[in-house]
Amino acid sequence: MLKTLGLGAAALGAAPIIASTASASHHESGEHEPKESEIGFKDGEFVLPPLDYDYDALEPHIDARTMELHHSIHHQGYVNGANNALQKLNEIASGDGDASLVKHWTRELAFHGSGHSLHLLFWNNMKPDGGGEPEGELAEAIESSFGGFENFARLFKAASGAVEASGWGILGYEPVSKKLVVLQAEKHHDITVHGVVPLLAIDVWEHAYYLRYQNRRGAYVDAFMEVVNWDDVARRYRAAKG
Ligand code: MN3
Question: How far does the centroid of ligand 1 lie from the alpha carbon of residue 192, in Å?
Answer without folding.
Answer: 18
